[in-house]
């Protein structure tokens, strides 16, 4: 509850993080750099490897917040899943270690932050840009699902961007492993941003929740706001349960309209799989091979006029 949270909420000095952090296993020394922001229990910083000069993104979690076995298990699960992954469009996991006060997770630095900041600045994104981003997201999610991992919290803020404007999926704090492909998860501890109806109704859920979230990401990028947004969480949950959303008159291509509708099917089994989406007609439109960093602030002008 919020009282506990506030009491537990340490001030930044209580985090007492040394300026040089040693990873005892690899004997790597990191210099603590720029504060990047807060992520869950963590304060995040740029970490520079003294030896190589390479810069990483570090999550620092005080052990005082991991006293309850449940919190520690959740962090072990996040680390165990994330360190098993290696993909061009998934945030690279480098290291995990602790000292007497904190636990440290060393991750790939994504200097252009995430699609959240881009969306806030641009509101709507063009179809070619959306095809460019969604192609990378779908490739990475198809890889995850083939490894029997569900992310369960795909949202703009977890879709990070590096200096080459490539997508890197991060934050495996709500991810889980499926025992087999017919396994159904019954619990999810935490509140995904783009939560699927079967999770709200506690009906058991599987890979399909990531397709639902992808539909919400696609909708938000093309139309400028999430499909089920309301003033309160209760009302949003009610619209999700009733599958009540409408695609405003903004002109979006029939292929985009169709993919959104299929990803947002109320019944999980009616949604396409990530493998199927890789070959969806949605991707037949012009898709740039690269994007300039200027798209963080202004819409791109492509040399050839894409049809849609
Ligand atoms: C380290 C946590 C999280 C993250 O998971 N990554 C990969 C990341 C990478 N680069 C960055 C980053 C580089 C330059 C600015 N942010 N940030 C990342 N974050 C942010 C930090 C604050 C909230 C989430």
Largest sheet: 6 strands, antiparallel
The H/E string reads HEEEEHEEHHEEEEHHHHH
Helix content: 25-40%
The rounded Rg comes to 20 Å
Number of E-type strands:
10
Q: What small-molecule ligands were found?
A: the ligand CC[C@@H]1C(=O)N(C)c2cnc(-c3ccc[nH]3)nc2N1C1CCCC1
- Sheet-strand content, in percent, reads 15-25%
Please state the average pLDDT score.
94
- Low-pLDDT sequence parts: none
Q: Sum up the overall morphology in one term.
A: globular
Spatial ordering of strands, largest sheet: 1-2-3-4-6-5
Q: Give the terminus-to-terminus CA distance.
A: 48 Å
Account of the protein in words:
Helix content is 30%, strand content 18%. It is an alpha+beta fold. The strands form 3 sheets. It has a 6-stranded antiparallel beta sheet, with no helix packed on it. The chain has a two-stranded antiparallel ribbon with strand order 7-10. The protein has a two-stranded antiparallel sheet with strand order 8-9. Bound molecules: the ligand CC[C@@H]1C(=O)N(C)c2cnc(-c3ccc[nH]3)nc2N1C1CCCC1. The ligand CC[C@@H]1C(=O)N(C)c2cnc(-c3ccc[nH]3)nc2N1C1CCCC1 binds next to strand 2, strand 4 and strand 6.
Give the structure's gist in a few sentences.
By secondary structure, this protein is an alpha+beta fold. Helices cover 30% and strands 18% of the residues.
Key words describing this protein structure:
308 residues; alpha+beta; two-stranded antiparallel sheet; 9 helices; 10 strands; 30% helix; binds the ligand CC[C@@H]1C(=O)N(C)c2cnc(-c3ccc[nH]3)nc2N1C1CCCC1
Topology:
Blueprint: H1 2-8, E1 20-23, E2 28-39, E3 42-49, E4 55-62, H2 69-82, E5 93-98, E6 102-108, H3 115-122, H4 127-146, E7 149-150, E8 159-161, E9 167-169, E10 176-177, H5 197-200, H6 208-223, H7 233-241, H8 254-263, H9 274-278
Antiparallel strand pairs: 1-2, 2-3, 3-4, 4-6, 5-6, 7-10, 8-9
Helix pairs in contact: 4-6, 6-8
The structure holds the ligand CC[C@@H]1C(=O)N(C)c2cnc(-c3ccc[nH]3)nc2N1C1CCCC1.
The ligand CC[C@@H]1C(=O)N(C)c2cnc(-c3ccc[nH]3)nc2N1C1CCCC1 binds at residues 36-37, 39, 44, 57, 59, 91, 107-111, 113, 160, 170-171.
